[in-house]
Amino acid sequence: MKRTIRAFCCLLIIAATSSLNACKKNEEPPILNSYATVTFQGLISSDGCGYVVIIDNVTYHPENLPEDFRADNLKVKVNAHFTGERFQCGLAANLSYPIIHINSISKR
User: Fold this and answer.
1) What are residue 71's phi and psi, to 5 degrees?
2) Which of 48, 33, 39, 49 is nearest to 99 (CA)?
3) Spatial separation of the C-alpha atoms in residues 39 and 96, rounded to whole Å
4) pTM beyond 0.70
5) What is the architecture of the domain spanning 31-107?
6) HEC string of the chain?
7) How does pLDDT run across 12-48, given as a tens digit for each residue?
């Protein structure tokens, strides 16, 4: 009888663990893979937004834009993912952009 109860408890624990793991959401951030334009929106130290990446009229703040790509109106091809955070520009509480992490970037 004790063996039956132990076996049943083990199966119950395995089933519960499996069902909990099946309910987890995919934590992968969405990927951007598109043509874009790098623009300069003023020095961050002077309440500007620094270099931003514009894709389909949506502005993003790159957290790791390479130095070679820091040029105003530079046309690029970018592969990036969202960090889930926002970058606030200056003192304006209503001006913030989604932050992206660049996986790869090349000039067009």
Assistant:
1) -145, 140
2) 49
3) 15
4) yes
5) Beta Barrel (2.40)
6) CHHHHHHHHHHHHHHHHHHHHHCCCCCCCCEEEEEEEEEECCCHHHCCCCEEEEECCEEEEECCCCHHHCCCCEEEEEEEEEEEEEEECCCCCCCEEEEEEEEEEEEC
7) 556 555 555 555 555 667 799 999 999 999 999 988 9
